[in-house]
Design brief:
By secondary structure, the protein is α/β, with parallel strands linked by helices. The protein has 4 helices and 5 strands, in the order H-E-H-E-H-E-H-E-E. The protein has one domain: Rossmann fold (3-Layer(aba) Sandwich). It is globular and about 35 Å long.
Length: 129
C-alpha cells in the first residue's frame, strides 16, 4: 500500500485522512494503515457541519498545514492543497507525491506537476501557520 510505504519512508506515526468515504471503507482503510489514523469525524471530536463543503474546507486547512501531504492524482482538492502549502512555505518535497492510478511497491513515485508549487510564498503566511 502506497500510504504505508510513504509513512515508513518519512517516519510518520500518525496520519490524517481527508475523505468522504462511507464508514465501512474508512474501517477497512484503518485496518490496512500501519499508523494511527485520524478522520475529521465526531469520533475524534469534530464539529458536525450543516453542509459537506464546510467539512471539506476544514480538511483542506488541516492538510495544507501538515508536515507531509500525499495527494491524489487529478484531484482538485490535492491541487489546491499543494498550492496552499507552497504559499505557506512548506518544502515542495513534502507535497509533491501523489497516489498513482496504478501502484507498484517500491516503484517510481507519481509526482505532481511543478506548476502546482509556486516559488512565491504568501505575504501573510505567518498569521495562518
Amino acid at each position: 500500500m502506497k500510504l504505508n510505504e510513504v509513512l515508513e519512508q518519512e517516519g510518520i506515526q500518525q496520519v490524517f485522512i481527508a475523505t468522504d468515504a462511507q464508514d465501512d471503507l474508512r474501517s477497512e482503510l484503518q485496518k490496512q494503515v500501519k499508523a494511527s489514523v485520524v478522520f475529521y469525524d465526531s469520533a475524534n471530536g469534530a464539529i458536525k457541519f450543516d453542509h459537506k463543503g464546510k467539512q471539506a474546507i476544514v480538511e483542506t486547512w488541516i492538510a495544507a498545514r501538515a508536515d507531509f501531504f500525499l495527494g491524489t492524482v487529478e484531484s482538485r482538492f490535492s491541487m489546491s492543497i499543494q498550492l496552499e502549502r507552497s504559499f505557506l512555505g512548506k518544502p515542495h518535497r513534502t507535497s509533491e507525491q501523489e497516489f498513482c492510478k496504478v501502484y507498484s511497491a517500491g516503484g517510481k513515485p507519481c509526482l505532481a506537476p511543478k506548476y502546482r508549487h509556486t516559488p512565491r510564498r504568501g505575504s501573510h503566511r505567518e498569521q495562518y501557520a
